Amino acid sequence: MENQALQLELLGMNEQVQHAERTSEQIEKLYADAVEATHNISRANVQLDKAIRTNRSARKYMIVFFLVASLALLFLDWWNS
After folding, report:
1. pLDDT the model gives residue 57
2. pTM of the entire predicted model
3. Considering just the CA atoms, what is the radius of gyration of the chain in Å?
4. Which helix (H) or strand (E) holds 49?
5. With the CA atoms of 34, 37, 39 and 42 taken in that order, what torsion angle do they form, in degrees rounded to the nearest 10?
6. Rounded to whole angstroms, how far apart are CA atoms 56 and 62?
7. Is the pLDDT of residue 3 over 90?
8. Distance between CA atoms of residues 68 and 74, nearest Å
9. What residues does the T-SNARE coiled-coil homology domain cover (predicted)?
């Protein structure tokens, strides 16, 4: 009777150890995924900064273009009148 109780207890402990090992593997995978996600976020931030700088530059060129085009139209209108 006592032998069976000990065997059942050992089986229960063995299952707990196996569960702990599986959980440990899952935690390690989650950690690796978190590190990779952090790296991807850092790269994305660099790309966003680059896009913001490019957008600022393009906006300046568009403003200059429309200003020059407007002044040219005003000049041509004045010249023809």
Report:
1. 87
2. 0.56
3. 35
4. helix 2-80
5. -130
6. 10
7. no
8. 10
9. 26-76
Token pair 């702990």: residue = 20
Instruction: Tell me which residue of 20, 40, 18 sits closest to 28, measured CA to CA.
Output: 20
* Planar angle of CA 74, 77, 81, nearest 5 degrees: 140
Cα(14)–Cα(52) distance, integer angstroms: 57
How far is CA 21 from each of CA 8, 15, 26, 28, rounded to the nearest angstrom? 20, 10, 9, 11
The CA–CA distances, whole Å, from 43 to 18, 31, 40 equal 38, 19, 5
Q: What angle do CA 23, 37, 28 make, to 5 degrees?
A: 20
